Amino acid sequence: MPAAPADDAPRSYSFLGPSGTFTEVALGQVEEARGQIWKPVSNVGEALGDVLEGRSTAAVIAIENSVDGGVSVAQDALATMPGLRIVGEVLVPVNFVLVARPGTRLEDVSVVNAHPVAYGQCHLWLDAKLPTHGHIPASSNVAAAASLLDGTSTADAAVAPPGIVNHYDLDVLAENIGDNPNAVTRFVVVSRSREIPARTGADKTSLIVELPNDESGSLLGMLEQFSTRGVNLSLIESRPIGDALGRYRFVIDALGHIEDERMADALLGLRRFSPNVIFLGSYPSADRTAVDYHSRYNDEVFIEARDWLRGLLSAEPLDD
Ligand SMILES: O=C(O)C(=O)C[C@]1(C(=O)O)C=C[C@@H](O)C=C1
Which CATH superfamily is domain 8-93+182-194 in? Predict the structure, then answer.
């Protein structure tokens, strides 16, 4: 295992680069990262590898977009790289421009370079304005834009964040090309620390859960672990496990903290039920909205019920 850095050593944060990405904007919202080392990397796997192997204290990665859904590359990496924990989340409003080399006109564009998640958020506009265009996937939108100028791209244009013109000498062919003007991307801070952020009352718990094989109703059985404890979910997505057709794992965000009795009890239920539960972390939710739940799922109600059971088992004489 890599040696732990000294307490006063500068901390390093890996993020999808180069400079100018939405991921960098997200990192800017992470208080602990201010004044620390920011390390641009080429992809999510490299960012998480940096954390696992001790080259970085933490990584910031995109995990969910309000238009395009879960970022599957990030979900799959978290499912298959044991030892990582989510310790925080931030939300970034996203919108996009189409940029090209100076002098290019919109009608000259036949191939567009874009990160797949950004492309998924702009395809209505692109299909309407450039119906015959082709798409080349990029590692990030800023990398797509930069490659138009360094001679490495065969594309005519790139989808990029609006601030791109502050970094590169490119023409903006169109603004606000996102399909939804209110699009938001959710980013998570991933670390190797086993320390769970303190409970705030406005928390999320991220999990990956597999279902028992070939049991009818097992999806319902998994959901019941949450519903019978009054735990609400804010995200549930299936991702293929990859070893056979029809085998999926579920990526879940549940509202609450592992120290909430109802969440702890749901986790115990999941652990008994599922062949594989990965606890990815409990952390304050970005919108700081207190978790709403019925009073019958208060901590006190769980504690009282446990005391009642203990009382039934004890040899103490009954009170009159
Ligand atoms: O960070 C960036 O700017 C990216 O290009 C990556 C990314 C992503 O990975 O989802 C980030 C946010 C946007 O929603 C689209 C793309």
Answer: Periplasmic binding protein-like II (3.40.190.10)
Per-residue pLDDT, averaged over 182-191, amounts to 98
So what's the pLDDT on residue 237? Answer: 97
Return the structure tokens found at 46.
């490299």
CATH 1.20.1270.10 for domain 196-314: no
Q: Which residue has the tokens 């859904």?
A: 69
Q: Which helix (H) or strand (E) holds 313?
A: helix 299-313
Phi first, then psi: give them for residue 117, nearest 5 degrees. -70, -40
Average pLDDT, the chain: 95
Could you tell me the distance, in angstroms and rounded to a whole number, from the CA of residue 114 to the centre of ligand 1? 10
Report whether residue 56 contacts ligand 1, using a CB cutoff of 6 Å: no
Contact 105, 161 (CB under 8 A): no
Q: Where in the chain is the domain with CATH 3.30.70.260?
A: 196-314
**Cα 55 to chain centroid, rounded:** 21
Q: What ipTM, to 2 d.p.? A: 0.92
Binding site membership of 77 for ligand 1 (Cβ less than 6 Å): no
83: its two tokens: 């030892």
**Distance from the alpha carbon of residue 86 to the mean position of ligand 1, in angstroms:** 18
Ligand 1 lined by 84 (C-beta under 6 Å): no
Tokens linked to 188: 């998570």
* Integer Cα distance of 153 and 43 in angstroms: 18
For 97-174, CATH gives 3.40.190.10
Q: Tell me the angle at which helices 72-80 and 44-52 cross, rounded to the nearest 10 degrees.
A: 30
- In the prediction, which pLDDT does 319 show? 64
Q: How many Å lie between the centroid of ligand 1 and the Cα of residue 62? A: 6
